[in-house]
Amino acid sequence: MKLIGSLTSPYVRKIRVQLLEKEIPFEFVLEDVWQPDTTITQFNPLGKVPCLVLDGGQVLFDSTVISGQMEYLMPTIPLLPSNPNARARVRTLEVCGQGISDAAVAILLENRFHEPAHVSQAWVVRQTQKIHHGLAYFQHHVANMPGNFLTEQFSLADVAAGCALFYLDFRMPDLDWRKEYPALKDYAERLAVRPSFEATRPQA
After folding, report:
1. Considering the entire predicted model, what is its pTM?
2. Which helix (H) or strand (E) holds 139?
3. Domain co-membership, 121 together with 189
4. Is omega for the bond preceding 50 within 30 degrees of 0, making it cis?
């Protein structure tokens, strides 16, 4: 099994964390999709990472597709509950984490590809609002869950949430979300010490 991606993408990190949590061996192949000589479209016609190449040669792309498929292909150490309603709740929380990452990436690209005078502040404000709404949603779940995670046990929801929170640290340190969402501060500290998150910490 081969995972194609970058060291800084929150979407790639999500799959790396999942694979490590499930103890699935894989080869990690670095790919910079922004370089002119990238070969990523050989695996994903949309030119995005992550891409997962299964042992039989089938290629999966989009982290939500990959994360769900991994649960079907490798049911040992499950990160999705078997109960349909509980599974839907976890997947909804997973998508919320993905959405926070989406908004942060949108802000990053807006600033990267536009001169300061041409950055759409309305766009940045809209994406920042999405981030805050998502963080408030997570805080509500953490504060009302008697355990240590977003649901009854560690799941894909926590993988996606952790990757989103730590991506905010990495790319938007001025946001200082821990001050506004104290329950998430403690939650993030619990996630950060898991070996899967420690091993996948992005480097500047």
Report:
1. 0.96
2. helix 121-143
3. yes
4. yes
**H helices then E strands: how many in the chain?**
8, 4
Instruction: Give the residue numbers spanning the domain of 103.
Output: 84-194
The helix/strand/coil state of 30 is strand
In order of 1, 19, 24, 59, the CA distances from 56 in angstroms are 9, 18, 16, 9
Indicate whether 15 and 45 sit together in one domain. Answer: yes
- Specify whether 135 is located in the same domain as 108: yes
Single out the residue in 18, 50, 73 at which a domain terminates.
73
Distance CA 197, CA 163 (A): 8
User: What is d(CA 34, CA 17) in angstroms, rounded to the nearest whole number?
Assistant: 23
Q: What is the pLDDT of residues 37-92, one digit of tens each?
A: 999 999 999 999 999 999 999 999 999 999 999 998 888 899 999 999 999 999 99
Q: Are residues 127 and 63 part of one domain?
A: no
Same domain, 131 and 174: yes
- Tens-place pLDDT, residues 148-178: 899 999 999 999 999 999 999 999 999 999 9
